[in-house]
């Protein structure tokens, strides 16, 4: 019994320490789904696999993955919606279609396939850029 109590107490202390860790502010702002959002633009590859919306796309297709804030599974109402995205550093913009889920994206982040990535970043190496976007 004492071992179980010690284990439970250790678990509670560990949870308290983890919940007290600071979270990095990355400057993401999100308004209503009808307004502009801003966050990070990143790149991803589908490697011939179907996205969470069920379709297979090529890496050059103008598609985007949104975070779990929007994508709740294969029947997400956001599947197939179009997004106008702009690189706020360069002013370049594209229109893309929601086709997948980005598990690590926040509410203002977008994960772009290779085609729109090249258009927005002038074919830059994979990385991160500031993006603003809204549903079309």
From TrEMBL:
Signal sequence region: 1-20
Keywords recorded for this protein, A-Z: Signal
CDD domains: DPBB_RlpA_EXP_N-like (cd22191)
Signal is among the record's keywords: yes
Protein name: Mrsp1
UniProt source species: Arthroderma gypseum (strain ATCC MYA-4604 / CBS 118893) (Microsporum gypseum)
């Amino acid at each position: 019994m004492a071992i179980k109590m010690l284990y439970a107490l250790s678990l509670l202390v560990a949870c308290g320490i983890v919940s007290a860790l600071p979270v990095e502010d990355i400057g993401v702002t999100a308004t209503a789904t009808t307004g502009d959002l801003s966050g990070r633009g990143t790149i991803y590859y589908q490697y011939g696999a179907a996205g969470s919306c069920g379709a297979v796309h090529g890496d050059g297709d103008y598609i985007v993955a949104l975070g779990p804030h929007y994508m709740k599974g294969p029947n997400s109402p956001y599947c197939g919606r179009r997004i106008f995205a702009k690189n706020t550093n360069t002013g370049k913009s594209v229109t893309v279609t929601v086709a997948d889920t980005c598990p690590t994206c926040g509410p203002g982040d977008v994960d772009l396939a290779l085609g729109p990535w090249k258009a927005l970043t002038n074919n830059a190496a994979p990385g991160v850029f500031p993006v603003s976007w809204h549903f079309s």
